[in-house]
Amino acid sequence: MERIYMDNAATTATDPTVLEEMKPYFTEVYGNPSSFHSFGREARDAVREARDKVADLISADDAKEIVFTSGGTESDNYAIKGVAEELKDKGKHIITSSIEHHAVLHTCEYLEDKGFDVTYLPVDEDGLVDPADVKDAIREDTILITIMLANNEVGTIQPISEISEIAQENDITIHTDAVQAVGSIPVDVNELNVDLLSLSGHKFHSPKGIGALYIRQGTRIEKYLHGGAQERGRRATTENVAGIVGLGKAAQIAGQNLEEKQAKITQLRDKLIDGILEEIDEIKLNGHRTKRLPGNVNFSIRYIEGESILMKLDLAGIAASSGSACTSGSLEASHVLLAMGLSAEVAHGSLRLSLSKYNTEEDIDKVLNVLPEVVSDLRAMSPIYNQ
Amino acid sequence: MERIYMDNAATTATDPTVLEEMKPYFTEVYGNPSSFHSFGREARDAVREARDKVADLISADDAKEIVFTSGGTESDNYAIKGVAEELKDKGKHIITSSIEHHAVLHTCEYLEDKGFDVTYLPVDEDGLVDPADVKDAIREDTILITIMLANNEVGTIQPISEISEIAQENDITIHTDAVQAVGSIPVDVNELNVDLLSLSGHKFHSPKGIGALYIRQGTRIEKYLHGGAQERGRRATTENVAGIVGLGKAAQIAGQNLEEKQAKITQLRDKLIDGILEEIDEIKLNGHRTKRLPGNVNFSIRYIEGESILMKLDLAGIAASSGSACTSGSLEASHVLLAMGLSAEVAHGSLRLSLSKYNTEEDIDKVLNVLPEVVSDLRAMSPIYNQ
Amino acid sequence: MMDYSDKVMDHFENPRNVGEIEDADGVGQVGNPSCGDIMKMYIKVDDDNKISDVKFKTFGCGAAIATSSITTELVKGKTLDEAKELSNQAVAEALGGLPDVKMHCSNLAADALRKAINNYLGIETEEEDDFHCHHQHG
Amino acid sequence: MMDYSDKVMDHFENPRNVGEIEDADGVGQVGNPSCGDIMKMYIKVDDDNKISDVKFKTFGCGAAIATSSITTELVKGKTLDEAKELSNQAVAEALGGLPDVKMHCSNLAADALRKAINNYLGIETEEEDDFHCHHQHG
Ligand SMILES: Cc1ncc(COP(=O)(O)O)c(C=O)c1O
Ligand SMILES: Cc1ncc(COP(=O)(O)O)c(C=O)c1O
Ligand code: FES
Ligand code: FES
């Protein structure tokens, strides 16, 4: 059976060109970038080039502002704990939103345990943070604002530049988790005007396990991994050279014709959204209709539960995801959908289909063909349907 | 020019078999192991198999005791900060040695800043920690002993089982940085009787950027990366699937005929040591003569400085390393050699040649051919030679 | 995180005895939509106190659907006493095992069945299940 | 972390004017073995107050050796006044640049030379350099 992958918000396939670029860095150019000799220099050169490419993709002024990490989670942990640690004598208040990724939320909760005070801002029914709420939440002791650029579940894109203006006026460090945005939409750290920005390669066709934290020059932050002097002393550990090379190549490819690719994916997305709305009743599109990632489709489908939708789709060869997940012995509805005002019941029936450059018109047609039957099968089994 | 790589303690070449094993996990089996669908399941299965292989290599009772990390540095940071964080109400005293890798030392220094108290045990002239010193250092409030299994510069292997017995008697958590040992010598977490053990793939022919922390069941430790529920909640972040598969394969290969390979490398090492001692005068072998990693050769060569030795060797096509390094505007002598009682002057002239399974008899001959001339050239230029 | 057995997949794909029994002798429901699962069981009881027919409707995860299905198969033709004895363990075993995090799902089906039997027998059951996600304490 | 220019590599591989001058007119030494570097400069001065010959010996890193070498080249034939003016910057530039962390090495050679000139001129220089690694404050 030919399978269709529509879970690109979870992770993407590595671009074969990216893999090609990486290959020599396993078995041939295998030196340690910190080593003095020629093997080391070759690796060092490769890391330098990759750093330039990543800096380019997000329009950083200086490649030195890019620190490679093991992925989005580390970037978020580093940014938030690093600023908290560094500025804790100045204040202990952090502002975030209630729809952040767990890498941000659980890090904030960890800091609450350590005596920090965190404000979780609400969002409207489209998942948007109101900059006025940010302003109102600021206190004397606010040291950090961390709000994501684009949401991983519903794709809503936040007004970060407006929020960063408020941060700047109040002299507060601002971080954005741009893990879902980088590679999908144009991201410019100067337009966004943020101090810190997290990105993760596997969301845009580099391998998993490699990411970066953008740290604007002059930003005060404690390091996260202690040890050797790698990454100008900001992240110890022997560099993941092949991964870094892959991230660099993926960044370069992502930047090429970005707007064109964005338009194409958006068009597929809209076809999928419109098609689903046409074929299936009693459903709700989650997330903002237009301030939305090009590849994100998220519906709540009433009377049925997400995991069983996924199973039916999987059996039909379609890989998708849901905000409903049985994590540790209980089905939990997505904190994002709940924060957007959905009832738990409706939130449990959510389905996310996320596209990448590899998805085609035919993929969309297949989903539009399969999904209605999946829904009606499950509804026929549901004790709360038609009652 | 054919180049010889003798810096395997810094990093090793990825085994081509390992790379082959990894390849499908970039572009074909690219699912997120946390995903529900078949793409996710395939990735999950691959991670499970790799975990079994790593557990096997270090004879862990249960694969669940293996947590994948981004490398040795993260494993060390996780172990030390994690235990410190978790047990800080019980006590704030940590015992380590003065010859640990910076990933341990700088983490300990960071904790000192945070109010912990660290004892840095001395070593003898061979780089050995005396278990009696460990016993003497234990206090009421000692919560962690962290001593490396094998030293990265001089290769000396510590009596960890003796030390862990003392730890156990005193009910203190014990961690060992086995980054240099795993894959080179047999390592058995139960024989060593440690609670935590760090390893890093790129030291034994897996790629860089992947490692593991062994956490014995029941060990109390705060998690390090906060976010998703990956690795049974102990390390958030989308799993580096290809890297994990590579680590697993490398672990499997390392375990095959380990003693045979060890014997072969030891024999090459001894030929190199004996040859150098024969050819060059006024030098000193650093590290214990026999309680030593099979691949480690480390000499102090009087009257000349390490970096210039490396440059000459590099020009002759030989990649090596030195304990003398210009890090941030000043030559710093190795803290390991200084702790072993060498004067800074002698420590500056240190040269490490580290072997792997890929080194040959011919490599040894070439070094024995080139090195004496390098030394005499530099000595001829030295104002402190023959004075 | 689900890795279901072939048996679970079979019952999920081809659930047995789905539906309602118009003139059921007993009906039992557990769960709550806000917890993401509701199971409803209908039974017909014959003169020998045996379950002559049983049907279910389920809103829930794949394990919930599969456990509902196998439960109906396991109890069809059994006496009420036998059926009441059906343990969650037995349900899970009949499915070739369930992933750890899904073990609680097997409670639901057996609970719904017991409720249906009690309903037939005229025994009141506490309605606690309707107010919080009972499988969280499961 | 060294990425040296071709010029540095050339002077490292083929250092000019290595050695001692038996009957030197001036000798200057800076550095300390425990800091990992010592540079010693020997000069001959002719009747026009020009440096007619200069030689060096260096214990130190690659940059230390290369800067010693280029310094001897730069000052040979220069008057003492000209030679004294030789800046660290000029040494680094003549080598096509030095990595940031190695900029301090360029001080050493110029300092040793100035010491040699002062020695010729009979001027005492403080010996602070011998007691701590002076390039740490460089
Ligand atoms: C918005 C967001 N932040 C952070 C992460 C974490 O990234 P990673 O899995 O690379 O650690 C993800 C994806 O998992 C994400 O979507
Ligand atoms: C003993 C020891 N510990 C820790 C590390 C750090 O490992 P990694 O570079 O994988 O972070 C190394 C090597 O760099 C090492 O030799
Ligand atoms: S019913 Fe299956 S997760 Fe609760
Ligand atoms: S002399 Fe070059 S590092 Fe100091």
Automatic annotation (TrEMBL), chains C, D:
Coiled-coil residues are: none
Q: Please state every residue range assigned to the domain named NIF system FeS cluster assembly NifU N-terminal.
A: 4-125
The leader peptide range reads none
Q: Which Gene Ontology molecular-function terms are recorded?
A: iron ion binding; iron-sulfur cluster binding
Q: Which InterPro entries match?
A: NIF_FeS_clus_asmbl_NifU-like (IPR017787), NIF_FeS_clus_asmbl_NifU_N (IPR002871)
A Pfam family reported for this protein in Swiss-Prot or TrEMBL: NifU_N
Q: Name one GO biological process term.
A: iron-sulfur cluster assembly
Identify the PANTHER family for this entry. Answer: IRON-SULFUR CLUSTER ASSEMBLY ENZYME NIFU HOMOLOG
Q: Which NCBIfam families match?
A: NifU_clost
What name is this protein filed under?
Nitrogen fixation NifU-like protein
